[in-house]
Write a structure and sequence with these properties.
This protein is of the alpha/beta class. Helices cover 39% and strands 12% of the residues. The chain contains 15 helices and 11 strands. The protein has a 7-stranded parallel sheet, with helices on both faces. A two-stranded parallel sheet has the order 7-10. Strands 8-11 form a two-stranded parallel sheet. It is globular. The two termini are 39 Å apart. This is Protein HIGH CHLOROPHYLL FLUORESCENCE PHENOTYPE.
Length: 409
């Protein structure tokens, strides 16, 4: 197959189910299924970090911690005691660490948590452009990397709740970040007796174990269940923000968008609403060691999404359709070559598309249990209408010089 054709198929699948990925609009993988190994051995915390926290003597200043005198080592921790931290010093129930705080979902969780009165710490990877906007909001920013477990303990000192919004970048291995990194984070939380862990997963991940990312999400859920931590798993259907980058902007800029002939429906949800419901769940005991599903008010096929964009943009979409059998055939072909495993993993979502199922879940009971008004939840129609009204007004003000991609609600 010619390289440009392969790229086209890759973009179709990434665009179609980009919103399924927690916190980002695309997905990547290692080309293999990675089930949790039986009896997996926890990684070793560095001795100095273990001794520091056992003595309760960390002094956190942004991302740094001082090292006190040595203390006797202890054996591996017993199941988590939800009444005290590892050093015996009480931690505030409002202390929170958000992992992946700069992402599409993570930043909304940070804002909502700060507004609700939480003391928010954000774990971000070292970067050339610092995440100053998080500091401006009032959060503390600490550096750490899921792929480097020794950087995790300092960020967790004095933390009651961890909200895990992190996911790998498109160029990264799903196994390394979304599996090995998450296992390291969960094991560190075990060792330091974190009292609440929130993990974002994918709706129906247990039904699509041939898709590497969905398989890893499900295995992480099972790993959490066996960890002894007090956890809440939140399965998501898709983000409205993905619709903007994959369809709303290209249609407005008169660029081609990719579509398929499937009838799969997705109940997209605004990340602001996901964050709002997450904080509501933290206040409810019923969410403890439970799996929740968050879904938008209505599910849409990709053809319907394109139709909405056309209506509010006042423009016709240039749609390049690719039959599902071509995507499936291409995945089988590329799986024979090691250098195309990332492409193959992306195309694995073609099997999800081909199922013609609906990524939607009833929310009435969830809203009632969380004490949240469903009428406050953003609909996709209103989201797109507000987006286009802002963008079109701005374009008119600047003389229609195309800068559509700079505006997100």
């Amino acid at each position: 197959m010619a390289p440009h054709n392969l790229l086209s198929k890759k973009r179709v699948t990434s665009a179609r189910l980009g919103g399924l990925r927690s916190g980002r609009c695309s997905c990547s993988g290692s080309g293999q299924q990675h089930a949790r190994p039986a009896g997996a051995t926890p990684f070793s915390l560095s001795d100095s970090l273990r001794r520091q926290h056992q003595r309760g003597s960390f002094q956190l200043a942004r991302a740094e911690a001082s090292e006190p005198a040595n203390a006797p080592e202890e054996t591996d921790p017993a199941p988590v005691d939800a009444t005290a931290n590892l050093g015996g010093t009480p931690v505030k129930p409002t202390s929170m660490l958000v992992v992946g705080a700069t992402g599409t979902l993570g930043r909304q969780v940070v804002r909502k948590a700060l507004d609700a009165g939480y003391e928010v710490r954000c774990l971000v990877r070292p970067r050339e452009r610092p995440a100053d906007f998080l500091r401006d909001w009032g959060a503390i920013v600490v550096n750490g990397d899921l792929t480097n477990p020794e950087t995790l303990p300092p960020a967790l000192v004095g933390v009651h709740t961890v909200i895990d919004c992190a996911t790998g970048r498109p160029e990264e291995s799903v196994k390394q970040v979304d599996w090995e990194g998450k296992v390291a984070l969960i094991q560190t939380c075990q060792a330091m007796k974190i009292q609440k862990y929130v993990f974002y997963s994918i709706f129906n991940c247990d039904k699509h174990l041939s898709v590497p990312l969905m398989s890893i999400k499900y295995q992480t859920e099972k790993f959490l269940e066996e960890s002894g931590l007090d956890f809440t798993v939140i399965r998501l259907c898709g983000f409205m923000q993905a619709v903007i980058s994959q369809y709303a902007v290209p249609i407005l800029e008169e660029k081609s968008v990719y579509g398929t002939d499937d009838q799969t429906k997705i109940a997209y949800m605004d990340t602001t609403d996901v964050a709002r419901l997450t904080l509501a769940a933290l206040e409810k005991k019923d969410s403890s060691r439970n799996v929740l599903t968050f879904a938008g008010p209505q599910a849409f096929t990709i053809q319907q999404v394109i139709g909405l964009c056309e209506r509010y943009a006042g423009a016709d979409a240039k749609v390049s359709k690719v039959p599902m059998w071509q995507l499936t055939a291409t995945r089988v072909l590329t799986s024979f070559f090691q250098w195309t495993v990332d492409v193959t993993d992306r195309m694995a979502f073609a099997e999800v598309l081909n199922s013609n199922e609906s990524f939607v879940a009833p929310m009435q009971d969830t809203y009632a249990e969380l004490g949240v008004d469903p009428n406050q939840t953003m609909t996709l129609e209103r989201y797109l209408q507000e987006y286009y009204s802002v963008v079109l007004k701005k374009l008119k003000e600047v003389g229609a010089q195309s800068r559509q991609g700079d505006y997100y609600l």
